[in-house]
Amino acid sequence: AGWVDWAWSFHRVAWTMMAAAAVYHGVCTVLWQRTPGKFLAGLRVETLDGSRVPGRLAWWRGLWSATTFVPSVITPLLVTAGWLTTTAGSRRSLADRAAGTRVVRARRR
Q1: Which residues, 6 or more positions from 42, have their beta carbon under 8 angstroms from its beta carbon?
Q2: Which of 47, 23, 44 is nearest to 35 (CA)?
Q3: Contact 29, 62 (CB under 8 A)
């Protein structure tokens, strides 16, 4: 019975995690152009022409980031395709490609 209860609630947990990740990435990108992890690594998110990411585009990127970070929402094929596109060519993730953004080293002020 315990396993059945977990199986029935798993999709709720997965969707909640995806929603939280989308809000986290969206808010951080809108306010600071980076998440705390990107800040610690000295990175930030910008558009392809080097300008600040507009709010609507930041939310779109956040949603894409959330769906690619939650394995229960996407198929292993998409994860593999995402990894291959990130490691090849311009090294932009699927979220960056969909939103027309890139991650670059942040300039120190």
Answers
A1: 105, 106
A2: 44
A3: yes
Q: What is the pLDDT of residue 101?
A: 87
pLDDT score for 89: 65
Distance CA 82, CA 13 (A): 23
Residues whose CB falls within 8 Å of the CB of residue 95, separated by 6 or more in sequence, listed in order:
61, 64, 65, 68, 101
Of 56, 72, 65, which is closest to residue 25 (Cα–Cα)? 65
Q: Which residues pair with 105 in a beta bridge?
A: 43
**How confident is the model at residue 5, as a pLDDT?**
58
How far CA 17 is from CA of 10, 20, 39, 65, 106, in Å, comes to 11, 5, 22, 12, 28
The two three-digit tokens of residue 29, written as one number: 């990108």
Q: Mean pLDDT of residues grouped by 10 in the chain (109 residues)?
A: 59 78 84 87 87 85 74 60 68 78 83
Tokens standing for residue 98 = 């969909």
